[in-house]
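in:
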């Protein structure tokens, strides 16, 4: 899901793509982005830089033609797959049909507690625009079960994933435990049925990308900057 080190994970696999390939794990190069967000762009409105020529359906079918008969494990990563609001839900049953050529399909989903998740989503919004007032944002999330279109009801997300892929195919990783242990990529690989020691074998050190700003600093700066987004100088002054 969003705000569970997805950018860090994608950066690690994209940067060390060839090293992982030598160990039988392929992280396909698709488009300019490090994550595979174009695989859901048919349903989720994304910036043009994240989309693929021919659309998501053609991309899934091309993956199956190229890799399904190989003896490698294919790892795909996009947090956009977990979007839940009805108008932006990826068609999970269709994706499962396109992936049916593979010997096994496994979904690995990182989850964090809803209170810190909600705060992190708010801070992400504040990076690009003047965010909504916090009280209004919170009340909307409690009323609808979504934060900026993202699931807060993890039971509903689980139901969708299991309905499309089967309960045996879905694995969950506790984001907080993996983060505090410093081994998010290793925990993801383990849940995916891969060798969790691969990062160490490849000499990959700690990586942190797209880190949220300090919550109180970001909130105060956003209130001062309204109706614009807070700039770096203002954030530093507030800090």
């Amino acid at each position: 899901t969003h705000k569970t080190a997805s950018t860090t994970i994608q950066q690690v696999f994209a940067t060390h793509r060839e090293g992982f390939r030598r160990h039988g794990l392929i992280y396909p190069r698709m488009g300019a982005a490090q994550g595979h967000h174009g695989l859901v762009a048919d349903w989720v409105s994304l910036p043009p830089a994240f989309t693929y020529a021919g659309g998501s359906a053609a991309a899934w079918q091309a993956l199956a033609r190229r890799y399904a008969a190989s003896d490698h494990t294919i790892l795909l990563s996009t947090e956009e797959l977990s979007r839940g609001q009805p108008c932006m839900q990826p068609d999970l049953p269709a994706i499962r049909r396109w992936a049916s050529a593979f010997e096994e399909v496994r979904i690995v989903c990182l989850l964090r507690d809803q209170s810190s998740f909600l705060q992190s989503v708010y801070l992400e919004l504040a990076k690009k625009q003047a965010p909504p007032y916090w009280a209004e944002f919170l009340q909307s999330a409690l009323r609808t079960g979504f934060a900026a279109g993202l699931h807060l009801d993890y039971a509903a997300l689980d139901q969708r994933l299991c309905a499309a892929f089967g309960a045996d195919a879905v694995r969950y990783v506790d984001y907080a435990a993996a983060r505090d242990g410093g081994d998010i990529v290793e925990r993801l690989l383990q849940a995916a049925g891969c060798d969790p020691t691969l990062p160490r074998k490849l000499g990959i050190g700690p990586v942190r990308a797209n880190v949220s700003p300090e919550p109180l600093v970001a909130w105060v700066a956003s209130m001062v900057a309204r109706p614009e987004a807070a700039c770096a100088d203002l954030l530093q002054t507030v800090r």
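note: The CA atoms of residues 1 and 23 lie 26 Å apart.
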